[in-house]
Amino acid sequence: MDFDGIPGLTSAINASLTEFFDQQAPYLEEIGPELGPVAGALGHFLLDSGKRLRPLFAAIGYLGTGGELTPEIVRGVASLELVHVCALIHDDVMDGSGIRRRAPAIHKQFETLHEERGLHGAGEQFGVAAAILIGDLALVWAAKMLHESGAPAKQILGSLPIYDEMRVELMAGQYLDTYEQALASESVERSLKVARYKSGKYSIERPLHFGATLAPQFEQEQLEIYSNYGLPLGEAFQLRDDLIGVFGDPLVTGKPAGDDLREGKRTVLVATTLSKASTSEREMFLRNFGRPDVNLGQIDTMREIIIETGALAELEILIEEMTLTAQAALKSVGITEQAASLLDEMAVAATTRTS
Amino acid sequence: MDFDGIPGLTSAINASLTEFFDQQAPYLEEIGPELGPVAGALGHFLLDSGKRLRPLFAAIGYLGTGGELTPEIVRGVASLELVHVCALIHDDVMDGSGIRRRAPAIHKQFETLHEERGLHGAGEQFGVAAAILIGDLALVWAAKMLHESGAPAKQILGSLPIYDEMRVELMAGQYLDTYEQALASESVERSLKVARYKSGKYSIERPLHFGATLAPQFEQEQLEIYSNYGLPLGEAFQLRDDLIGVFGDPLVTGKPAGDDLREGKRTVLVATTLSKASTSEREMFLRNFGRPDVNLGQIDTMREIIIETGALAELEILIEEMTLTAQAALKSVGITEQAASLLDEMAVAATTRTS
Known about the structure:
2 copies of one chain form a homodimer. By secondary structure, chain A is mostly helical.
């Protein structure tokens, strides 16, 4: 996903993350040189080129109120990336996913460190412990980066209620997702609810609200426009994610082909497929779904069933409809024209991306 | 540990935790009834009778500046208990400990829920995932409780730098501890450093600082007195923990006898024992140390070695010395007499406790 709506914004966000990391990492190593790899693990997420989706939405949420972006506000919105880093690191532990952004997941990296240094005990448990703590630290660093952003105190305080809400919803949504996987639910409605919490609220609506409440002034009406835009777009975003998880190009996504099928992820796409499949298609699909040792031929068979049942087409239509609904919300006059036009662009970028 | 220095303070802290829980739990269940057990798990920690050590120290830290306790400030300091709940829940996952406060640890509770509801996938992984998220949620609830405490905005903002510092140090200290265990280190010096971060700073010094910075006004000198008191006392506190982990009465601690020996925990007590043991004592000790299937007779043998090497006596002396050092710091006139006298009492309570 590329976004060039505000030239230099993504690089300003990246620069502020780098600056924060450069301040914090030496402090950790001062506590103990053993913490070098902990800092390094977080650096990997902060210094690489993530999409910075949530900081971008927060920045636009701020702009929509009429506020002008300052380096302090950029720091404040960039801090959302660290909340996301916590979610990613803990998510990989919970899923047992071994790969993230073309590199071993953090718990795998520390399992390797355990082995290389010839440490005692179970390497796997050490990796998990390290990843839990590094995720926790990311969540704390996020708050610290916001608190120290230099944005006016009144504005920081004003943003905290939404900030807390967003983080509660994130954890609740992650639990719903985990529970949904364990239920092996085939309900389209239930999967959509998870999508709503995991992405609708957390990835788009709340970052927009956060940005707005970080502004010197904002109107309740602006928050409503952001909800009307963010919730459907977030669902569309998550559905695109479902499709990428099944049909994505490994060279682009950095994850193995058909990863979600191998993991047996209960997505809206899978629920839709199963609701439309014939008995024999259903059997064929479930035979290989969630098998860690599934091969490429079997993945292709599952993909074909997704296409032939019409589930793929149905999701594409749903994505388009929800994107249009999101874009329609921008017709209201409550937010600045600049923000409306940027959000319009973001809607396309977020739902047509390939990784 | 009993503390009656300020009649009603512990119950006021408990009441504010109950109040917060009663507000938040319904909100979670509104997101989804599946979140009922998540709320319940946190309720277990908030509604039971923990020692509330960190809130108490924070309350006294506040009083020492001359501030008067209000219900809003009690809420603010009580929120530290939720940071600690996060640490406990994640700690149990990292250690693979099955029992906490006489009940199954959270990850075990959710493993059981997985089984009872006949959910799919590995129950153990589900339990770990749930515990990671519930710990994360506790950390977020902690911040939310502080932000919404109703304490004056300026004072909340003033406390955030220390609050963040404390949380970074907590995660760093936990990693150092995990690493230390994996190193199977026998260095007394290294174990003391871990004790310093895990308890000295996190459990006592920083809560005192947090309370002070939450006050309408505080002096740098007061923070220094709290450091001079908190750091040695924190170490003494941790050493008492080491002793309870080996010699504690299961009826009082709620944990199995000799739990730390079974887990093979690398504490200052163990490092001291090994540094003083003869070759044969050392061999006998290490033969059973860290064996999950160790029996009571073998635990008794290890305890005898700890006593006969003089390690037990050495720790008791160290605890006494550090407690005296902590108490001596209270002779400075920078904090209120009331706080100095309360801290004097707390020093005794924290280092002579039996659980």
